[in-house]
Each structure stands twice: as structure tokens, then as C-alpha cells.
């Protein structure tokens, strides 16, 4: 009776079949816990980065790329182990990051206590000298106020480490979870259900942001709560494969037909695409130490995956560009450490409210009616408009509005559409190529944006209006790429359906 009632509640928001309910709900709650953990620590991470100086932000993004190059192979490796199921691999990834957050709590608390007895208390993660808190100046004065010269090496190392690690956590956990979700759903069910699953992530963002606002006084202890949330994500990830046997049987011919549109890799795919009932058999005869290179080879051998990579790279470039603009504007207009931390959390929670409403009421309808092409073109168009707006009015109010609009469109429309791009590829391409694209290509885009922003920031003397205009050509290329990619996905989806 209780299960029937629960299914009835879910059916109010989405059309879900009985065999899909368990995987849908476990996916929903897994994303809820992952995003809650991320947004609980995000203000702490961003404020720690600002304390090291705005001029060092691009360098942190390049460092994030280097860390990703080291860590991504292990993420692909764990999914390729022949004696480890995909569900168990996802569980271990989430648990690993849970334990790592506990370690960072110990390091952060130790570095804060050792930095200055007079400047730190047990209740706040970061405080600054009162002179600097009251100081209102331009970009140059702020950059000189905060920097590495004002802190010890241990303090700097922990802040850098947390910034890089939280970014890695966000990429790997979300990409790995989506890979598992896509593995038990096809394009049709994804169009219906991805919006509801994404609502779990948005609800997690809202909860994490509000918790960070209300519990800001506990400072680094937020890391412990985030670790608990990641452990809950690990537990719920176990159920993503429950009750999906019927769906998997329907997906087998679709996966097999994917090799028909990639002539160059046809023979390779035939040896790897085995029945879904034995998901580990495709790697049984291979050394599992080379999965990241297999992912790269799958990408380079497929024009479709190369196109997807270009789209995601451009997405990362523009998103990171917006991040630098947001942090720069807020850092120059809000001088209080606590004020910046609170504003970051308020923007995140404000955004989450609109995203949640859109995902529960609009995503499924937009994807089924407007289609993938419209979905993935929406955010590039909004990004173009936002850059023009920031060039005219570079203040924190406009930043908040533009960030809200961009993220609402991204997570209500474009992100679910982006995940649908992978429903027309094979199992190997989802777990190896997709994770490689989501992690490595994403970080390459971040690094490119960091280099571009650092060059423009120095050349244009930190003028946010002029800097924004230089991002417009990238947005135009992004729009063109999204349009052609969406049309290609529709063609592949129709081809697979007709061949079943």
C-alpha cells in the first residue's frame, strides 16, 4: 500500500512505468545527496580561493586540470574491473570521496588553528584583519589585500587542495552517476524521467545551499556533514539497478545498433558489445589498466563523440568564464568575508528554487515536445545574452540575475538534453568515453577559460565589461555546435528505433 502511494505521488510529476520506479527513486535520492554535499562545502571552497587572491584563480583551474588528468584514469579503471559490477564501482567512488572530506576537515581545522591564534576561532573557517574587511577599493587593491604572501604554506596548501578536490568530486561523482542512470534507461525513458532525476540534484543544491547559510557559523565542520551526505549517496546508488531488468532487455538491440553508424570502429565494437545480462564480459579479455586510453580511442574513432566533446568543451569554457566574472565582480563589491560566503550561498539557493520548479513541471514536456536540439541550444543562447548584459551592467545584482537565468536554463533544459546525447551510444562508450568526456574534456575547457581570462584580465586591466565581450565569439560557436549536434542525435535515435 505504501509503495503504491509513493508511486502515485511520483506519477503526478512524471509518467513512469512500474519497472522504472525503483531505479528512478534511487537515482533521484543519489543525486540529491551528491549535490547536497557539494553545495554544503562550495561557499567554504570559494571563500578559501578568494583568500588566496583573485589573480590565482586561473592557476587553480589549471591545477584542477592536472589533478583530473591523474585521477580520471582511476575513475575509468574502477568501472572496467572484470570482477566488479558497475553498481558496486559507483558505490566505492562515492564512499571514497566521503572519506576524503573527513580528511580535509582535519587538515582545514589544523591549518586554521595554526595560521593565527588571534584571527581564527573554532566557529568560523576564515576571518580577515578588520582593516581588510572594511576596505572598499577597486580590483587592484583587493588583489593586493588577499594573496599567498599573507598566509603560511600549510594554510595555502589546504585551500588549494580543497578547491581542486571539490571540483574533482563534483565532476567524477556526477558523471559516474549519470553513466549508471543512462545505462538503465534509453532515449524515450530518459526524455520522460531525466527531469525528475535532475530535480533530485536541484533539491540537493537547495538543501545544501540553505544549510550552508544557516550553519555558516560551524565553519569547517560543514565538511563532516558533507562527508555524511556522500556516504548516503553511496548507499542509495546501490538501488539504481533495481527493478530494471525489463528496461535492459529493451535496450540491448539499441546498444547493438550503435556500431552501424561508426564504420571505422565496427569490428572493435562487435567484440565489445555483449548482451546486457553480462555487463562485465566486454572487459574480460583485456588488461584493465588501459581504460582511459580505450575511452580516448572510442572518442577519436567516432565523429559523433568528437562532436559531443566539442560541445561540452565549449560549455565548460563559457561556464568557467562566467565563474571568473562572478567571483571578480562579487569580490570587488562585497568586502566582508562572511558577506561573500553568505552571498554565494544565497545565489545558489535562489537558483535552486527556480530549477526545481522547472525540472518538476517543464523538463519532461520540453524534451518530448521541443526535442534534444532545442534543449541543448537553449543555454548557449542564454550565455550569449548574459555576456552582453554583463558588459553593460557589471554589478553583483546583474551577476545574480544572469547566473540564475543561465543555471535555470542549463539544468531545466540543456543538461537533461545533454545526457540524452549518450543514450544512442554503446555501453563501453557510456562508461569509458562518457566519463572521459565529462571529466577530461570538461577540465580542458576550464583550463582554456582560465588561460583566456587571465590574459584578458591582465591586458584589459580587470575591466569586466570589456572582458565579457571577448567571450561572445565562443558563445556563437557553441550555438552552431549545439544545433548540428542535436540534429545528429535525432537521426541516430531514429535509426536505432527503426533497426530494433
TrEMBL record:
<dbReference type="Pfam" id="PF03219">
    <property type="entry name" value="TLC"/>
</dbReference>
<dbReference type="InterPro" id="IPR036259">
    <property type="entry name" value="MFS_trans_sf"/>
</dbReference>
<feature type="transmembrane region" description="Helical">
    <location>
        <begin position="89"/>
        <end position="108"/>
    </location>
</feature>
<protein>
    <recommendedName>
        <fullName>ADP,ATP carrier protein</fullName>
    </recommendedName>
</protein>
<feature type="region of interest" description="Disordered">
    <location>
        <begin position="246"/>
        <end position="283"/>
    </location>
</feature>
<dbReference type="GO" id="GO:0031969">
    <property type="term" value="C:chloroplast membrane"/>
</dbReference>
<keyword id="KW-0934">Plastid</keyword>
<feature type="transmembrane region" description="Helical">
    <location>
        <begin position="61"/>
        <end position="82"/>
    </location>
</feature>
<keyword id="KW-0812">Transmembrane</keyword>
<feature type="transmembrane region" description="Helical">
    <location>
        <begin position="217"/>
        <end position="234"/>
    </location>
</feature>
<keyword id="KW-0547">Nucleotide-binding</keyword>
<feature type="transmembrane region" description="Helical">
    <location>
        <begin position="343"/>
        <end position="362"/>
    </location>
</feature>
<feature type="transmembrane region" description="Helical">
    <location>
        <begin position="369"/>
        <end position="393"/>
    </location>
</feature>
<feature type="transmembrane region" description="Helical">
    <location>
        <begin position="23"/>
        <end position="41"/>
    </location>
</feature>
<comment type="similarity">
    <text>Belongs to the ADP/ATP translocase tlc family.</text>
</comment>
<keyword id="KW-0472">Membrane</keyword>
<feature type="transmembrane region" description="Helical">
    <location>
        <begin position="296"/>
        <end position="323"/>
    </location>
</feature>
<dbReference type="InterPro" id="IPR004667">
    <property type="entry name" value="ADP_ATP_car_bac_type"/>
</dbReference>
<dbReference type="GO" id="GO:0005471">
    <property type="term" value="F:ATP:ADP antiporter activity"/>
</dbReference>
<keyword id="KW-0813">Transport</keyword>
<feature type="compositionally biased region" description="Basic and acidic residues">
    <location>
        <begin position="246"/>
        <end position="275"/>
    </location>
</feature>
<keyword id="KW-0067">ATP-binding</keyword>
<keyword id="KW-1133">Transmembrane helix</keyword>
<keyword id="KW-0150">Chloroplast</keyword>
<feature type="transmembrane region" description="Helical">
    <location>
        <begin position="152"/>
        <end position="172"/>
    </location>
</feature>
<feature type="transmembrane region" description="Helical">
    <location>
        <begin position="467"/>
        <end position="486"/>
    </location>
</feature>
<dbReference type="GO" id="GO:0005524">
    <property type="term" value="F:ATP binding"/>
</dbReference>
Amino acid at each position: 500500500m505504501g509503495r503504491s502511494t509513493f508511486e502515485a505521488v511520483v506519477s503526478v510529476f512524471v509518467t513512469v512505468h512500474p519497472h522504472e520506479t525503483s531505479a528512478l527513486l534511487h537515482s533521484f535520492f543519489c543525486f540529491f545527496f551528491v549535490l547536497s554535499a557539494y553545495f554544503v562545502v562550495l561557499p567554504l571552497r570559494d571563500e578559501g580561493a578568494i583568500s588566496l587572491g583573485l589573480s590565482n584563480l586561473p592557476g587553480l583551474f589549471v591545477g584542477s586540470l592536472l589533478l583530473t588528468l591523474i585521477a580520471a584514469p582511476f575513475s575509468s579503471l574502477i568501472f572496467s574491473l572484470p570482477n566488479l559490477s558497475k553498481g558496486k564501482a559507483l558505490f566505492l567512488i562515492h564512499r571514497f570521496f566521503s572519506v576524503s572530506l573527513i580528511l580535509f576537515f582535519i587538515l582545514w581545522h589544523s591549518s586554521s588553528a595554526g595560521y593565527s591564534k588571534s584571527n581564527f576561532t573554532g566557529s568560523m573557517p576564515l576571518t580577515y584583519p578588520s582593516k581588510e574587511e572594511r576596505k572598499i577599493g577597486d580590483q587592484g587593491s583587493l588583489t593586493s589585500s588577499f594573496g599567498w604572501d599573507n598566509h603560511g604554506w600549510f594554510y595555502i596548501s589546504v585551500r588549494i587542495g580543497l578547491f581542486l578536490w571539490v571540483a574533482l568530486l563534483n565532476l567524477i561523482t556526477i558523471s559516474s552517476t549519470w553513466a549508471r542512470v543512462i545505462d538503465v534507461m534509453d532515449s524515450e525513458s530518459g526524455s520522460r524521467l531525466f527531469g525528475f532525476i535532475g530535480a533530485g540534484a536541484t533539491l540537493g543544491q537547495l538543501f545544501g545551499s540553505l544549510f550552508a547559510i544557516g550553519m555558516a557559523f560551524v565553519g569547517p565542520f560543514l565538511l563532516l556533514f558533507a562527508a555524511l551526505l556522500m556516504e548516503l549517496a553511496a548507499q542509495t546508488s546501490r538501488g539504481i539497478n533495481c527493478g530494471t531488468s525489463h528496461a535492459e532487455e529493451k535496450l540491448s538491440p539499441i546498444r547493438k545498433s550503435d556500431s552501424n553508424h561508426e564504420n571505422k570502429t565496427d569490428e572493435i565494437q562487435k567484440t565489445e558489445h555483449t548482451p546486457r545480462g553480462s555487463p562485465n564480459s566486454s572487459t574480460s579479455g583485456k588488461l584493465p589498466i588501459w581504460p582511459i586510453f580505450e575511452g580516448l580511442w572510442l572518442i577519436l574513432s567516432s565523429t559523433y563523440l568528437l562532436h559531443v566533446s566539442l560541445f561540452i568543451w565549449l560549455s565548460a569554457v563559457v561556464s568557467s568564464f562566467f565563474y571568473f566574472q562572478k567571483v571578480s565582480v562579487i569580490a570587488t563589491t562585497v568586502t566582508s568575508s562572511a558577506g561573500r560566503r553568505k552571498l554565494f550561498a544565497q545565489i545558489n539557493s535562489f537558483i535552486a528554487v527556480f530549477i526545481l520548479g522547472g525540472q518538476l513541471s517543464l523538463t519532461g514536456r520540453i524534451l518530448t515536445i521541443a526535442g534534444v536540439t532545442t534543449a541543448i541550444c537553449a543555454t548557449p543562447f542564454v550565455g550569449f545574452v548574459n555576456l552582453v548584459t554583463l558588459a553593460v551592467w557589471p554589478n553583483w545584482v546583474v551577476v545574480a540575475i544572469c547566473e540564475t537565468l543561465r543555471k535555470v536554463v542549463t539544468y531545466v533544459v540543456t543538461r537533461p538534453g545533454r545526457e540524452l546525447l549518450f543514450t544512442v551510444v554503446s555501453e563501453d562508450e557510456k562508461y569509458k568515453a562518457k566519463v572521459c568526456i565529462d571529466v577530461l574534456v570538461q577540465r580542458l575547457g576550464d583550463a582554456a577559460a582560465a588561460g583566456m581570462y587571465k590574459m584578458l584580465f591582465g591586458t584589459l586591466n580587470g575591466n569586466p565589461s570589456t572582458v565579457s565581450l571577448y567571450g561572445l565569439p565562443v558563445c556563437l560557436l557553441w550555438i552552431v555546435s549545439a544545433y548540428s549536434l542535436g540534429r545528429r542525435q535525432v537521426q541516430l535515435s531514429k535509426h536505432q528505433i527503426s533497426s530494433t
